Amino acid sequence: MNLYDEEEILDAELVDDSALALAQEPPAQLLVDHNTVLYPGQAIPTTADGPRYSERDLYVSDAAKKILKETDPTDSGPMRAFKDWCAEQGRVAVPCTTATFTEYGLHLMNRELKVATIKNYMSRIKTAMPPGKKPDNSLYLRLLADYRKNNKRALRTRQAFPLTLPYVMPMMEKAAADGRPIGIRDAAMFAFGYRFLGRSIEDADAMIEDLTVMDDRIVIWVPEDKTHKGEAQTITLKDRPDLQLVRRMRAWLGYLASVGVTTGPVFRHLLKNGLPATEATRAKTATTRGAHLRGHVVNERVKHWFAAAGLVSDGRPVTSHGLRAGGATDLAEAGATDQELEEAGRWAKGSTIPRKVYVRPAEEGKRDPFDKVPVHNPAAVAED
Question: Within this chain, do residues 93 and 116 fall inside the same structural domain, yes or no?
Fold first, then answer.
């Protein structure tokens, strides 16, 4: 070090750290506009009057983190598929550009998916984007309009095959005869699904603590459903000699109690050893459903026992929704009114679905204009 350097250091002004920090802060700015109104003697507000945040103000708790991760819209099935596609294409998934969003819509159309399915997926992807960075969907909608015009089959909606009593009964009997916990669970789940007339997710979301099992009925408290958001309901499910809902549910709940499970999901995953899954055992393999059965698992169980019972559909898909469709179909064929169906299935007031999907087909199935035409040569037909 030379003398010049030493003189420079000796002549330097000593400044403490706090003074240096203050010197680096930008000068306070007035926070006023044409709508500002002050009382006499009140100081003009500035940026210096604002709150001083610390790290504690920036972090959420572990409990909040768990809920936020479980309800993260960017972790839905459609978003996971979108992210995988973007990775393959070398595109940014979040936030995505309008071009990427549009191109993915075309990708779904090239897969010949139903229009309703494409609209659902694209809506969920757009919703998952950060606020203020959502893509413009006008171009994708132009592609979808062309797709609708030139792919009429994509507009076709195939109703689930209705699992009416003649189908549900052998499915339950086959499952119960299996003897293992999974058979006991599935038999109870089918009886409950048919009688509850619930949507698949509502069946799978049922909680033990919300059930009251009596000798001739089951009372269930439902916090909300698709058409009753934020509106709790208490629903009574009267038993039937053929369905034996109470007996089947008691058998399943009794098994759960015997292994120490008395709260939580009614219809839950089972481990390979037959023991019911808990939140802890499912933590590594399930992100949002935990011990609850997931929709595709319920579908698989319905398909499994349908085939095991030697049943055959009319070409319509066999799904878990068939339990709801089956109960509604049986009610319609038994002469239930639109209102009775609406109340039993908890459809929105004035919904056209009960009449359009269940009542009308049941009425049309009982009459055929060709019944008025006499049979040609009935004697010959009788001989055949």
Answer: yes
